[in-house]
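Propose amino acids for all 249 sites.
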């Protein structure tokens, strides 16, 4: 029960597109730099202890994945997002009702999509300029995250209106000039890696099911600059050890 309460609290934090971030005590402030950066997260608040003690933490380098003949992804993204929010750590788009992922026989509802620049996960040691996390939860508060990696290339038409609308001030919201189509965020090929891990931000709760798309999406250098400028400091947690985990594909 305690684990479910903590995961539910973490999900509440992830869904801050629905409310302006409340002022938190100074002891709970975390960041990506200095003495409130990732190396110190576990010391900032007792609720963040898993950031230092967890054995199944994220992100990781996807290396040596085993071919497990994973079933096709069951994604049904029927609605689009229209609002983007800067919560001081990332920029995120809330998902209306109607977007789902079925994984391991469980139904997960898409809550929001947010971004990390540069990428948090790497593949065979390669880092990418941008990573999108599509965060889903089931009826019990368990989390599943679909991850899309972007590599520099042509302009990404699906990101165009979002990149042009990004708020660059914490707690600022903005209307997207055109709707954000979550389906178009995904690569055409839906082959993926599977790994159990954690939230990549405090409280670093474990038990998160990660689905990392094998194919990448293009993004232009100008679009990368737009996301980086809105996010501010690089918001990628350092890589965590796999320990006994083996990625599947």
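Proposal:
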């Amino acid at each position: 029960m305690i684990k479910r309460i903590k995961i539910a609290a973490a999900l509440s934090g992830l869904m801050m597109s629905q409310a302006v971030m409340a002022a938190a005590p100074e002891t709970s402030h975390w960041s990506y730099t200095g003495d409130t950066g990732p190396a110190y997260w576990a010391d900032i608040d007792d609720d963040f202890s898993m950031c230092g003690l967890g054995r199944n933490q994220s992100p990781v380098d996807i290396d040596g994945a085993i071919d497990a003949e994973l079933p096709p992804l069951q994604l049904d993204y029927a609605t689009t997002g229209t609002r983007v929010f800067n919560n001081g750590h990332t920029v995120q788009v809330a998902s209306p009702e109607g977007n789902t992922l079925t994984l391991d026989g469980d139904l997960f509802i898409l809550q929001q999509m947010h971004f990390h620049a540069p990428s948090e996960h790497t593949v065979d040691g390669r880092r990418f300029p941008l990573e999108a996390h599509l965060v889903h939860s089931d009826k019990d508060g368990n989390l599943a995250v679909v991850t899309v990696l972007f590599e520099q290339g042509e302009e990404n038409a699906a990101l165009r209106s979002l990149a042009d609308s990004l708020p660059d001030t914490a707690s600022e919201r903005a209307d997207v000039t055109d709707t954000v189509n979550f389906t178009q965020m995904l690569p055409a090929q839906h082959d993926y890696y599977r790994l159990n891990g954690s939230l990549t931000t405090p409280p670093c709760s474990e038990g998160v099911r990660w689905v990392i798309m094998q194919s990448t999406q293009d993004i232009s250098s100008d679009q990368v600059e737009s996301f980086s400028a809105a996010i501010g400091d690089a918001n990628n947690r350092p890589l965590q050890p796999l320990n006994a985990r083996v990625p599947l594909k």
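The longest helix spans residues 2-14. The first strand starts at residue 61 and ends at 62.
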